[in-house]
Amino acid sequence: MTLGGIGVALVDSKDVPDMVLQIYLQRFANPPSPLDNVMVRCLANMWIAGARSIHDGVMKLFTQISIESSNRVYSQEPVGAGEHRYAHVSLAVDTALGRMADGVAEGEDQHALLVRLLELFVQLGIEGRRVGEKVSKSTVKMSTSAGNLGVLMPKIATLLKRMEPISNPSTRLRNLFRDFWFYCTVLGFDVEYSGW
User: Fold this and answer.
1) Helix or strand holding residue 41 (H, E)
2) Residues 40-83: pLDDT tens digits?
3) Nearest C-alpha neighbor of 62 from the set 84, 23, 19, 91
């Protein structure tokens, strides 16, 4: 926790957030412990404080945790002990993403987080479809993707409410929003009383 506080306090110092991230990544879930939840919270705090140099590393970790956790929940295949390594931090990552969406203040950081959340949304949609193809019941197929993606929607909505309108989106952002809308439509998120 002290290390995370140093990362936040010295967010503008060259290489300090990167060093904190590297130390956390070396220790993270190796072996799994309650400290992993603290590390997730500290990484989110550094992101919110404006440590842009760690964006890639943090989102790579959060994406890996989200995808592995969602696969573990819905997979019918037996899983080994190594595949449960992130189960204890999936809620902490969900909470951290919500805090990041609500706490990031600068426009450039908000835009970067929006792109990362949309990328995660699309990746979870693709992964949900892949896992759903292995499941024989169509109801389970739909709920697999819907449950995973529905968790990210409030974070994306919170971030969009706080952002200035995007007048000239990049092609990448346009494509991500297209894919986002596709999954929303297919899974029924765009219906007024869909339960989401």
Assistant:
1) helix 35-49
2) 999 999 999 999 999 999 999 999 999 888 776 555 555 555 55
3) 91
Q: Is position 130 within any domain?
A: yes
Q: Which two tokens stand for residue 98?
A: 């919500």
Structurally, the chain folds into a number of domains equal to: 1
Whether 166 is covered by a domain: the verdict is: yes
Q: CA-to-CA distance for 149 and 40, rounded, in angstroms?
A: 20
Residue whose pair of structure tokens reads 């805090």 in the numeric block: 99
- Tell me, yes or no, whether 196 lies in a domain: no
Report the alpha-carbon distance of residue 125 to residue 134 in Å, rounded. Answer: 15
pTM of the model as a whole: 0.85
- Count how many Cα atoms sit within 13 Å of the Cα of residue 156 in the half-sphere of its side chain: 19
Range of the domain at 133: 2-186
The tokens for 180 are 């986002």
Using the 8-state DSSP alphabet, how is residue 55 labeled? H
The first and second tokens of residue 81, run together, are: 């002990």
**Residue keyed to tokens 């219906």:** 191
CA 94 to mean position of chain CA atoms: 7
